[in-house]
Design goal:
Elements: H1 7-10, E1 20-21, H2 26-46, E2 54-60, E3 63-70, H3 73-77, H4 82-95, E4 98-105, H5 113-125, H6 130-142, E5 148-155, E6 164-171, E7 181-191, E8 194-204
Parallel strand pairs: 1-2, 3-4
Antiparallel strand pairs: 2-3, 5-6, 5-8, 7-8
Helix pairs in contact: 5-6
């Protein structure tokens, strides 16, 4: 039986970096970790339409720096930066600390694994055939010059009574090689028949790092 592991956690300190960067004493660690989770879930909920693949959190003293990666920076910033200010105030109240927000644009959202998975999940919710949704995402990503891509859907696909798993792959996806730049994303589609999980693995070339 295959032993599954998260591709991001598997490559930490080798090819990938942590999504949070800070140091805390043992008694404060759990509190700060929980705070990070609340910040992420709050921002992800608020920026659902802004195509946010990841959020980076850095702490120094009484300051929290939050870097939001987004494919649609205009939605995050809002009119005259109003949205950013509102988020700063909300996060400041939540954490009781000074919050700095950085917005960083994602240049190629078509090859961000998290955004590809979310895009396929959204199409499944709109009742588009899963094979068609997967195929289209794979073709778009491959046309941008990546090494390989694999997308997998699990659940009651097409509304069938028995849940199953279907996947498609193009190019190379060497998941056991730690040196390879493998991007991983997971999303869930809430359909009439229940949840369908969507996983996406993208093998990027070194220069697209």
């Amino acid at each position: 039986m295959g032993q599954k592991t998260n591709p991001t956690g598997f490559r930490l300190a080798v090819r990938r970096n942590w999504q949070s960067r800070w140091f805390a004493r043992k008694k404060d660690f759990a509190k700060l970790l929980h705070e990070d989770q609340i910040i992420r879930s709050m921002l992800m909920e608020k920026l659902k339409q802004a195509s946010v693949p990841r959020i980076f959190i850095e702490r120094a003293g009484n300051r929290v720096r939050v870097k939001i990666f987004t494919a649609r920076p205009g939605i995050v910033i809002g009119k005259k930066g109003q949205e950013v200010e509102n988020m700063k105030v909300a996060l400041g109240k939540l954490t009781g600390k000074e919050v700095l927000l950085d917005i960083q644009e994602v240049k190629k959202p078509e090859i961000e694994a998290q955004l590809v998975a979310e895009s396929v999940a959204l199409q499944l919710e709109r009742r588009i055939a899963f094979r068609r949704a997967i195929k289209k995402s794979i073709q778009t990503a491959m046309s941008l010059g990546i090494d390989g891509i694999k997308i997998q859907c699990s659940g009651r696909l097409g509304g069938t009574d028995i849940a199953r798993r279907e996947w498609q792959r193009q190019g190379r996806i060497p998941l056991h090689t730690l040196r390879e730049n493998i991007d991983y994303g997971f999303a869930e589609a809430q359909t009439l028949w229940g949840k369908i999980g969507v996983k996406c693995w993208i093998c990027k070339k070194d220069e697209s790092n």
